[in-house]
Amino acid sequence: MKEQKTENAISKTCYILALVLLVVSVISSLMSIVSSQISTTLAFAAFTIYFIPSILKNEKSGWICGILGLLLIILNFIPSPW
Predict the structure, then answer these.
(1) How far apart are CA 64 and CA 73, in angstroms?
(2) Model-wide pTM > 0.70
(3) Residue 9 buriedness (CB in 10 A; 0-12 / 13-18 / 19+)
(4) Which of 11, 28, 60, 71 sits CB 3.0–4.6 Å from 39 for a disulfide?
(5) Are 54 and 62 contacting, i.e. CB atoms less than 8 angstroms apart?
(6) Could you tell me the CA-to-CA distances from 10 to 13, 14, 59, 71, 72 in Å, in that order?
(7) pLDDT tens for residues 5-55?
(8) Which parts of the chain fold into alpha helices (H)?
(9) Greatest CA span in the chain, whole angstroms?
(10) Is residue 76 within 8 Å of residue 44, measured between CB atoms?
(11) Cβ count near 46 (within 10 Å)
(12) What is the pLDDT of residue 33?
């Protein structure tokens, strides 16, 4: 019972953090004061954090999406030749 409450608290915390990062990303992209790379990185981080509860439950979809999010964050920092 206590383990389930902890799991629910972790899930809610991850979802709230992902929502906050996504809102900050949208606001920073609308303001266009900050470079678009930062807002894109925040959106990818929100995507990755959103799937942490699925990773903790050992679901394949959580692992796939979590790794995809990390790869997108890494690829975002590689300079484009264009």
Answers:
(1) 14
(2) yes
(3) exposed
(4) 28
(5) yes
(6) 5, 6, 16, 23, 24
(7) 777 888 899 999 999 999 988 888 888 765 678 888 888 899 999 998 888
(8) 2-31, 36-50, 52-56, 60-77
(9) 54
(10) yes
(11) 20
(12) 65
